[in-house]
Amino acid sequence: MTDQFTYFGIHLAFLLPPILIQGWLAIRRDRTWWGVCPLSGLGIMIVLAIVYTTPFTNRLIPVGVWWYGEGTVLATVWHTPLEEYLFFVLQPILTALWLFQVRPSADRSLAIPRTHRLLGVASGLAIAVVGWVLLGDTATYYLGWLFLWAGPVLALQWGFGSTYLWAIRRSLLVAIAVPTLYLWLVDRIAIELGVWVISDTYTTGHALFGLPIEEALFFLVTNLFIVQGITMYVWVLDRIGSGSAWTSTAPRVPTSSDDR
């Protein structure tokens, strides 16, 4: 199987090039988010991605929710390939560098109505509850774990900043949609090449553009985590008076009326 495409090959062919291009643009363009504030936010997201996603993958892989083609990975730690851990680092970088180009922002106070906070928390927890229910059926096992895993993070993010996120919803949509669509394409290619295989037993059988709906939702949810997390981090530092100094190499984008 010398001609078998590998997981590391996926990184080299599809993740590193756009990361390098976007990194070059971020350094060159004056209107890109840059500096200690956004980069430290990215660093925090990488750490959280590794810590929070590691138990998730190591729970589902040994069950057989997905597996990897013969000869496609170098080695595994616990039940997860080294390349998967590398992906936990590369995806936040890929998505964040695009976010730095979009720069969603609005002049909003950190004060949020209590009802908005409660609604945000309730929405995230409702997703987790739906996930718990879906675990009872083999065909929705992957979907159930995905919702159960995603719900608490979304509850935290929406509970803290739902009002602000809604104020910048249009630019936020652009920041989330582009890397999500790209990773859908990469995932679809990797599945076609046999780099990894998604179980028919533990999935619903529904697909989006030929991609299992569970995989599509995974990339959507994880990009939500990254974009919302970094955006709110920059917002908080800006409001407490640190962000403007930390991002001095790139001026802040004026609030767009389209985001109101």
UniProtKB/TrEMBL annotation:
It is a multi-pass membrane protein. The keyword Membrane applies. The chain crosses the membrane at residues 7-27, 33-53, 85-106, 118-135, 141-160, 172-196, 216-236. Keywords: Carotenoid biosynthesis, Isomerase, Membrane, Transmembrane, Transmembrane helix. GO terms for molecular function: intramolecular lyase activity; lycopene beta cyclase activity. It comes from the Archaea. Coiled coil: none annotated. InterPro entries: Lycopene_cyclase_dom. Residues 12-95, 141-227 form the Lycopene cyclase domain. GO terms for cellular component: membrane. Pathway: Carotenoid biosynthesis. One of its GO terms (biological process) is carotenoid biosynthetic process. This is Lycopene cyclase domain-containing protein. It comes from Natrinema pallidum. The lineage of its organism: Archaea, Methanobacteriati, Methanobacteriota, Stenosarchaea group, Halobacteria.
